[in-house]
Amino acid sequence: SQKIEQNSEALNIQEGKTATLTCNYTNYSPAYLQWYRQDPGRGPVFLLLIRENEKEKRKERLKVTFDTTLKQSLFHITASQPADSATYLCALGAGGKLIFGQGTELSVKP
Amino acid sequence: GAVVSQHPSRVICKSGTSVKIECRSLDFQATTMFWYRQFPKQSLMLMATSNEGSKATYEQGVEKDKFLINHASLTLSTLTVTSAHPEDSSFYICSAQTRRGGNEQFFGPGTRLTVL
Hints:
Helix content of chain A: under 10%
Structural class of chain B: mainly beta
Shape of chain B: globular
Number of strands of chain B: 11
Order of helices and strands of chain B: EEEEEEEEEEE
Strand content of chain A: over 45%
Oligomer: heterodimer
Largest sheet of chain B: 7 strands, mixed
Largest sheet of chain A: 6 strands, mixed
């Protein structure tokens, strides 16, 4: 069956450290993968998109990797700040639609 | 740029009534809009894809007669929950893609529906 799995446990890290979030999938062949941030009671906000032929993408303190052999994407936030605390969602792009993971809650402590 | 609004942000209604939720792209034209629902601590589940001027495409298991979608213009899509029941209580979120294409979706702030 098709699955998208993100770190099920909430991630707690200290300010200034690098947060690494994982997204694994099975039985999909996504053309691209996206990462979104969602705050409580709000809609998701787009962060980064990475295509199947790209290994890595960066934007300011954010970095995404995409390994289609391992069927995994890693999302890194360097020099994390308390304001980065939120739920982060990965979404696979297939057939013009997005299929979302359940999200990982990140908490950055000062 | 690429701002999507939803109205209302919260709605409480009685069981059996219908509720309409509006989704607008404020500063761009959206040929495609998507409707999702999200239960607490769960993933966004796609309900339907809506293209301007044509009928919506519903995902498996979503009742099209219960969740009526209208995409009347390039900036407006509406979702009407008909004969709402308590199990329809959820967070409904729309998103839009720009006309120029690309795979990025811009999300609205969501509508919290509570059916008593």
